[in-house]
Amino acid sequence: MAVVLFVLIEADGWWKTATVLFAVAAATDFLDGYIARRYGLVTPLGRILDPFADKIIICGTFVFLLSVGGSEAKSGVTAWIVVVVLAREMFVTSLRGFLEKAGRDFSAALSGKLKMVLQCAAVPLCLLSMDDAIVAEYDGLLRIRDITLWVAVAVTIFSGVEYSIRAVRMLRRPEPPVDPQDLSERPSDDTAGN
User: Fold this and answer.
1) Alpha-carbon gap, residue 38 to 101, rounded angstroms
2) Exposed / middle / buried, residue 72 (Cβ in 10 Å: 0-12, 13-18, 19+)
3) CA–CA separation, 86 vs 104, rounded Å?
4) Whether this model's pTM surpasses 0.70
5) What is the CATH number of domain 2-183?
6) Nearest Cα to 154, choosing from 118, 190, 127?
7) CB–CB of 164/96 below 8 Å?
8) Which of 35, 112, 121, 163 has the fewest Cβ atoms nearer than 10 Å?
């Protein structure tokens, strides 16, 4: 689904379709996670693949919006926003991999989940703001997009800092290692939005 989304963004003029496709991808991701937790279907592979898929679609969409937005940043997405999002995602994913390989439980924090929700709210607004007819019809769209994007970036930075502090604290105190198999058996765990 991500590849089709990226092609639509690059094709120019398919903003409404790209927005709907992104919304469907985000909704199915949340639904998939809910079903897995609700019915005890969380697996070690799912704990790895779900956040990976999230990162591909979020990071990829921001990169493609930057590439089509050009220097005027018509989408609202600028190079520094892309750098912040990519750096935070790579850093936290590396932290998680390192700590969970060492047997530590580095589950998603509330700030990571909020970050994902805000990014998923910002992306459709950025996509729709590429359509001149929509921008002309909805007077406040750009203002709402900018506020949502700024809040998403602020929470992205905050959650990266929070995860860093959590990792440092975790590494400073001895904790009995957790069997990685046990991590997949916790039905309340959610890695979406890490």
Assistant:
1) 26
2) exposed
3) 24
4) yes
5) 1.20.120
6) 118
7) no
8) 35
